């Protein structure tokens, strides 16, 4: 599966700062210290209805991570998946009377278009669940052979008790895990499981649903968590720098994925940091496909909204915060974009040296994009009042906003 084209990232003078970021597993901020190549895995979409503002906010956060790392003169090895076969996708296809593969391909293509318009840096490896199946089957077989998995009526489940570190990502108690498992794709009430929390690794073939050759597993399709584990281990290996996604993925997805990988390899941890973006609401409720309360990037673009304004609307909120999309949020972003473009269009202005340092410092401090925007606002305000004669300043500001915030002025 191919990703989307990359926009050029301008090189800035000097060198950026190492990223200090909130890690869900430790509950506090840690300073990331990747080697020359920083490794990040971000969980992708299930392509049956893309891309709403919740998606956009999540991918914006991890785009900032990449940009901070690039500014430290590192390379970035970014991997993202597409869950292009799963129950919600199949259910939507049945509801709409559409072939599930055509639905997945259309929505994935739309997602690529949205990411391109928002100038999100693409992953080096963009991998669909279907194309990952040949690598998933041997992992499930290894877990069975190690006693970390078991069969139940033609399905294969992972035993959470096989990983001594289980629970170390989300730190939830058993009852909270059970409730979230039921809400988020698990089946804690299924009879015969060793532990209600045990997640499915391989679903045996169901009538009327797609299935693939699972060798000695029998025909079927993979569970949700093992998909990402297989892709991450193949392309990044154990101990990569950041596992990212929305806060609703901390449990069960990232918790289970970590345990799968740790049971497979005997190594710990799966990722050095687990980083989670907040949820975006509309009309007082979390924006979600199941509720249908969605604002789509593609719809805004069709209405003539500048993608740079959409991106500024996202950047106005700290990535870990939960916030609400409103018409005013977008109007404020449109106005800010106009002010910034007017400021950099002048032939000279106040020195931008301090601004570059402020934006770097803000983003290195747990991706504090609101503080970064405030720094650019101050420079633009000084520019408007005629406070400077540095002929290179507007260009430096424009390149800084482009390189670090992904906004083209």
What does this protein look like?
This protein is of the alpha/beta class. It folds into two domains: 20-286, HUPs (Rossmann fold, 3-Layer(aba) Sandwich), CATH 3.40.50.620; 304-405, Up-down Bundle (Four Helix Bundle (Hemerythrin (Met), subunit A)), CATH 1.20.120. The protein contains 13 helices and 14 strands. The strands form four sheets. The chain has a five-stranded parallel beta sheet with strand order 5-4-3-10-11, sandwiched between helices. Strand 1 and strand 2 form a beta hairpin. Helix 10 crosses helix 12 (369-384), helix 11 runs antiparallel to helix 12 (369-384) and helix 11 (353-364) packs parallel to helix 13.
User: Would you identify the CATH architecture of the largest domain?
Assistant: 3-Layer(aba) Sandwich
Largest sheet: 5 strands, parallel
CATH third-level topology of the largest domain: Rossmann fold
What is the overall shape?
A: globular
- For this structure, what is the CATH homologous superfamily of the largest domain? HUPs
Tally of domains: 2
CATH class of the largest domain: Alpha Beta
Measured on Cα atoms, how large is the radius of gyration?
Answer: 22 Å
């Amino acid at each position: 599966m191919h990703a989307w084209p990359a926009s050029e990232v301008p090189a800035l003078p000097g060198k950026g700062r190492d990223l200090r970021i909130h890690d869900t597993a430790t509950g506090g901020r840690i300073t990331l210290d990747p080697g020359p190549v920083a490794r990040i895995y971000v969980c992708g979409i299930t392509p049956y209805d893309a891309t709403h503002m919740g998606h956009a906010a999540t991918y914006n956060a991890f785009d900032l991570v990449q940009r901070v790392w690039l500014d430290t003169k590192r390379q970035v090895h970014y991997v993202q998946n597409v869950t292009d076969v799963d129950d919600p996708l199949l259910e939507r296809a049945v509801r709409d009377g559409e072939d599930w593969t055509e639905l997945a391909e259309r929505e994935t293509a739309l997602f690529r278009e949205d990411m391109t318009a928002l100038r999100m840096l693409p992953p080096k490896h963009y991998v669909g669940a279907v194309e990952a199946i040949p690598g998933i089957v041997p992992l499930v077989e290894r877990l069975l052979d190690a006693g970390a998995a078991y069969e139940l009526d033609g399905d294969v489940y992972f035993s959470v008790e096989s990983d001594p570190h289980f629970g170390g990502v989300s730190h939830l108690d058993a009852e909270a895990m059970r409730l979230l498992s039921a809400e988020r794709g698990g089946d804690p009430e299924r009879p015969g499981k060793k532990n209600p929390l045990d997640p499915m690794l391989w679903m045996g073939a169901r009538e009327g649903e797609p299935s693939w050759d699972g060798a000695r597993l029998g025909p079927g399709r993979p569970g949700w968590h093992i998909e990402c584990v297989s892709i991450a281990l193949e392309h990044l290996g154990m101990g990569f720098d950041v596992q990212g996604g929305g806060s609703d993925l901390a449990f069960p997805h990232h918790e289970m994925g970590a345990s799968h990988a740790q049971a497979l390899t005997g190594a710990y941890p799966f990722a050095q940091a687990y980083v989670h973006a907040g949820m975006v609401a509309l009309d007082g409720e979390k924006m979600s496909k199941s509720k249908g309360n969605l604002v789509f990037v593609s719809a805004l673009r069709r209405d003539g909204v500048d993608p740079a304004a959409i991106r500024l609307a996202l950047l106005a909120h700290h990535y870990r915060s939960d916030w609400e999309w409103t018409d005013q949020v977008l109007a404020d972003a449109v106005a800010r974009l106009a002010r910034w473009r007017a400021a950099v269009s002048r032939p000279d202005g106040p020195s931008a040296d301090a601004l570059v340092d402020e934006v770097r410092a803000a983003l290195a401090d747990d991706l504090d994009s609101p503080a970064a925007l405030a720094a650019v606002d101050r420079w633009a305000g000084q520019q408007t009042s005629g406070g400077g004669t540095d002929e290179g300043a507007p260009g430096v500001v424009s390149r800084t906003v482009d390189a670090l915030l992904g906004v083209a002025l």
